[in-house]
Design goal:
The structure holds two protein chains of two kinds. By secondary structure, chain A is mostly helical. Chain A has a domain of 214 residues. Chain A is 73% helix and 1% strand. In chain A, strands 1-2 form a two-stranded antiparallel sheet. Chain B is mainly α. Classes of the chains: A mainly alpha, B mainly alpha. Chain A: It catalyses: a quinone + NADH + 5 H(+)(in) = a quinol + NAD(+) + 4 H(+)(out). Chain A: One of its GO terms (cellular component) is plasma membrane. Chain A: It is a multi-pass membrane protein.
Chain lengths: 502, 508
């Protein structure tokens, strides 16, 4: 590659990525030269400001036309912009949680804590913009490897070690499967560029090759379900969530999951939508595989919601709850209606707000009591009414009660499922039934917070960073629940992500 | 689109009370109770004002409100209003009567809440939120808004039962949550299927879309005949949980016994009626053809409800359980009237909805007055109350008379018209149903006599009779029950237009 061609690229569209990369590099250097024992919490603010600037730069890029650079490996389209905003917002809130994270034994590697979030975020952002299997995979691995280390950051805490170990091993298996699936696609088309693959596959007429492609689809989906924490790769979630430091758990359940859906949407819609198949819809492999996705979505919702009923450890409970929510989003994907990407995006806005808010409260309580048992929530209403009220809002939203963002998100997903012909009645029925099941455990937390008395009467103090997160999330949850047009008017400018395949 | 905010004002004025309450220190018992009571008044005054104006010929359509709210995606190939949900409120005669009923019972229940013993602040905030939900349900102009208000009643009720109830309150709260959660889940599915396939959730537009052949061609996706039947049955189940129709009634017994009586006044007086309202408004309004096919089945369900409730009420030891089964039994009459599917039947059903609202509120008000003094509602432990509390005992007898359908009181009118309707269509079923009326007299008299007469089972010496603050709501309710009984035109007139529209929908 010549220098001249390199300079000609519109590097401006990568500004957000460069900012995150720069901040991460500077942070790691500062951390290296900072004297031991110095308070490193200032670094968190630095990282936060970096993420905030990157967020603003994405907003600045919103009017930019859809384009791609570096031989189509990096694209900036509506999809990338919309999801980058989500990832950045999620990461910013997680950094505020990390700032105030105080486990009982203290945390030794605070510097790493902050810049590893940034590298993980960078990986996720690369995934939203990738137009090539290679960059997609590199982004995925950057996210995964950073997360593996983050999960094990509480070095002297046994569960944290277990968590990191499980995460690495499961992640390794899933990565292998993803790569294996990709190799089929590469073998059939001879290209790693998504657009070229799509063109090649749309002329695929040989029955045997179509069969191979269907196999590749399933293997890829199974491999990627690791990041979504959906069936069949959900088993890691409870153990990893429980052992990892709480901000990391929050990161995994929100940012990492969003990134997982980003790669699923990007990959499957681009490659498989126009590929002919032998299945029920001869013109599209994606539509032919609908039933398989629907089956996995149904299984995810059922498993997540029913096992959550038995949990007494709140982090594990939220692990199963996050599995269930992945299932709901998969319903939106499996329905493949006009509103698919819109509904998934809105659901993640809601999910980000309500889940991060809940994790913020959970972090304060588990830091103070040293355990995540549900009984520590007892009497929260007396000990800190503000926390009790806001936690109430998050739980209502997670349960999908009207007046909260979670409700609108669910309504939109249902709309997608009923809009198509034939409609997905069975899938929707499973979703609504499991939602009612989820009332039991979400309201079980309510019972603890509002009805039960507690022996401890010492009031709980909220640190600054957590307070900001809680307020932002609570206000957002209510606001998007009552005036959802705020988000939908914003979405209008993307015109239903029609430039996805251009 | 216009500038009136009258209906919004009725619905959301309790919100002002919630905000004010937030600033009162939680130990100020008297202030909180007074404020909680005052906060229910604006809705009541405005609702009564609208009602009086309507009786004098005001056109209710002028109260309709509409504001843009949500749109789920704008597509170039669809019209602007497709998949848009507006904030739209409107009322007809039936809805206005229900709003007056709700506002009135809320005020009276706020008075009855003087017996609440702890955490008055949280109690009244949830109480007022519950009122907002109940009022909104009746004024909602589209299905999604209806559902949102419907669910707003769910959460405060869960807390009100679970925190301020009696011994098994948490179990009752969960039972309430799960049953009603399933009911509203089914309702949500029905609403969203209609919304997704027609592109609108406006009730009057939906009627058009479902029945006008020209409009049917414009659906987003087809709605087959089978689907319509499926949706109707789902609606029947969803509202059947709320009403409740017999196999789905277990939760409601627990709530009646465990919730604080002031809340049961609202629960039995208004919340159960939402089930009937929904069945009439949506079951009958949107799916008249399907309703006609199921009419006989619904009438039979009604008779089953009536008899089952009446027979079990006869065997109960707890006065609250007697009243709970009595509610089930009386809701059977609503179903009987609807099953008749003629003018008399529908009128009787709606009359019963309103009349039972007042009667059950009165009875539970008296329960709370009794419980305050005797600390029990078990029939075996009461007795001889007539000597110690002659006034209370008298009111109780009057309430029971109203409930068993004594001529001259509202219960009689509704039972009579409902049965009149059914006798025209299915005389045998109606004849079986009349056994229930006899049973009603039997179980109510048994319970009341047990409480008021006989030897005193406990020491009533230090017990004072009903006090002024308690007597006012009792008199208001009793007065209304007799007034409707003597002058049913006061209800028949506002309901006339609604009933006629429904009969039009049925095609004769």
């Amino acid at each position: 590659m010549k220098w001249e061609t390199l300079v000609q690229y519109k590097w401006g569209m990568m500004t957000p990525e460069f900012i995150i990369l720069g901040v991460a590099t500077i942070l790691s250097l500062i951390d290296l030269f900072m004297p031991r024992g110095k308070d490193r919490r200032l670094l968190a603010w630095f990282a936060f400001v970096g993420v905030a600037i990157a967020f603003v730069s994405v907003i600045g890029l919103l009017p930019a036309k859809t384009a791609s650079i570096l031989y189509d490996t990096f694209r900036l389209d509506a999809f990338a912009k919309a999801f980058k905003l989500l990832l950045l917002a999620g990461a910013a809130l997680v950094l505020l949680l990390a700032l105030d994270y105080k486990p009982k034994e203290g945390i030794k590697y605070r510097g790493e804590f902050y810049y590893l979030f940034l590298t993980a975020l960078l990986g996720a952002m690369m995934m939203t913009s990738s137009g090539d299997l290679i960059t997609l995979f590199v982004g995925l691995e950057l996210l995964s490897v950073s997360s593996y280390i983050l999960a094990g950051l509480r070095k002297t805490y046994r569960l944290s070690n277990e968590s990191a170990m499980k995460y690495v091993i499961n992640g390794g298996i899933s990565t292998a499967m993803t790569l294996f699936g990709m190799s089929y696609v590469f073998g059939l088309t001879g290209s790693t560029n998504l657009k070229k693959i799509a063109v090649q596959l749309s002329t695929l007429t040989d029955g045997g090759q179509q069969y191979l492609l269907a196999l590749a689809f399933l293997i890829l989906f199974v491999g990627l379900s690791f990041k979504l924490a959906s069936v069949p790769f959900h088993m890691w979630a409870p153990d990893v969530y429980q052992g990892a430091p709480t901000p990391v758990t929050a990161f995994l359940s929100v940012v990492s999951k969003t990134a997982g859906f980003v790669i699923v949407l990007r990959l499957f819609i681009t490659i498989f939508a126009a590929a002919p198949s032998h299945g029920k819809d001869p013109s599209s492999m994606l539509l032919s595989m609908q039933d398989y996705i629907a089956f996995l979505a149904g299984a995810t919702m059922i498993i997540g919601n029913t096992i959550a009923l038995k949990q007494r450890n709140v982090k594990r409970l939220f692990a199963y709850s996050s599995i269930a929510h992945a299932g709901y989003v998969l319903v939106g994907f499996a329905a493949m209606s006009w509103v698919m990407v819109d509904s998934i995006w809105f659901y993640f806005v809601a999910y980000l707000l309500m889940n991060l808010g809940a994790f913020a409260i959970l972090q304060v309580i588990s830091d103070q009591s040293g355990s995540e048992d549900i009984s520590h929530f007892a009497g929260l209403y007396k000990r800190n009414p503000f926390m009790a009220m806001t936690m109430g809002i998050f739980l209502l939203s997670l349960a999908g009660i009207p007046g909260t963002a979670g409700f609108i998100g669910k309504v939109n997903i249902f709309l997608g499922a009923f809009m198509t012909e034939p409609a997905h009645y069975v899938l929707a029925a499973i979703m609504i039934a499991t939602t009612v099941v989820s009332y039991v455990y979400y309201f079980g937390l309510f019972t603890q917070i509002f009805f039960r008395a507690t022996a401890e009467h010492e009031p709980i103090k909220l640190p600054l960073g957590v307070t900001i997160v809680v307020i932002v999330c609570a206000v957002g949850t209510i606001l998007f629940g009552i005036i959802p047009s705020l988000a939908y008017n914003f979405l209008d400018q993307f015109q239903h992500f029609g430039d996805f395949l251009q | 689109m216009n500038g009136t905010y009258f209906l919004s004002l009725i619905i959301f004025s309790p919100l002002l009370g919630i905000i004010l309450l937030a600033f009162v220190p939680k130990t100020q018992e008297q202030t909180i109770k007074l404020l909680g009571f005052l906060a229910t008044l604006p809705s009541l005054i405005l609702a009564l004002f609208a009602f009086v104006q309507y009786l004098r010929g005001y056109d209710l359509n002028r109260l309709a409100e509409k504001h843009n709210w949500i749109h789920f995606g704008k597509f170039s190939f669809l019209t602007e209003s497709t998949f848009a949900v507006d904030y739209e409120l409107n009322v007809d005669g039936f809805a206005l009567v229900m709003i007056v009923l709700t506002a009135l019972l809320a005020t009276l229940a706020a008075v009855a809440s003087i017996h609440i013993k702890k955490e008055w602040k949280g109690y009244f905030m949830l109480f007022l939120l519950l009122e907002i939900g109940m009022l909104g349900v009746f004024a909602a102009g589209n299905l999604l808004l209806f559902f949102i208000f419907f669910e707003i009643t769910l959460i405060p009720m869960f807390f009100l039962i679970g925190k301020w109830g009696y011994f098994e309150k948490e179990k009752a709260a969960y039972s309430y949550l799960i049953y009603n959660g399933i009911g509203s889940a089914i309702l949500l599915i029905v609403i969203l299927i209609l919304f997704a396939r027609t592109g609108t959730s406006n009730i009057s537009l939906l009627k058009e879309m479902l029945h006008n052949p020209a409009a049917k061609a414009q659906l987003i996706a087809p709605i087959s005949n089978d689907l319509q039947y499926g949706l109707f049955i789902a609606l029947l189940v969803a509202f059947g949980v709320k009403l409740p129709i017999v196999p789905l009634h277990r939760w409601m017994l627990r709530v009646h016994v465990q919730a604080p009586p002031s809340i049961v006044m609202l629960h039995s007086g208004v919340l159960l009626k939402i089930g009937a309202f929904g069945l009439i408004r949506f079951g009958l309004g949107l799916f008249p053809e399907q309703f006609r096919h199921f009419a006989l089945f619904i009438a039979i369900l009604g008779v089953v409800n009536l008899l089952y409730g009446a027979f079990l009420a006869f065997t109960q030891d707890d006065f609250k359980m007697v009243l709970a089964y009595s509610s089930i039994s009386h809701m059977g009459i609503v179903l009987i009237g609807l099953g008749a599917l003629n003018e008399a039947g529908i009128q009787g059903a709606i009359f019963q909805v309103v009349s039972h609202g007042f009667i059950s509120a009165l009875l539970f008000l008296l329960v709370s007055i009794f419980y305050e003094r005797a600390h029990t509602t078990m029939l075996g432990n009461l007795g001889g109350a007539a000597k110690a509390m002659p006034l209370t005992a008298g009111f109780l007898l009057a309430g029971a008379m109203a409930s068993l359908g004594l001529p001259g009181m509202s219960g009689f009118i509704s039972e009579f018209t409902a049965f009149l309707g059914l006798f025209k269509v299915a005389p045998i079923i109606a004849a079986i149903g009349t056994i229930g009326i006899i049973m009603t007299a039997a179980y109510l008299l048994r319970a009341v006599l047990n409480i008021t007469y006989g030897t005193a089972k406990r020491d009533y010496r230090e017990v004072v009779d009903i006090q002024v603050i308690e007597i006012v709501p009792v008199l208001v309710l009793l007065g209304l029950i007799i007034f409707i009984g003597v002058y049913p035109h006061i209800l028949a007139h506002p309901l006339q237009a609604t009933i006629e529209t429904m009969l039009d929908g049925l095609g004769g």
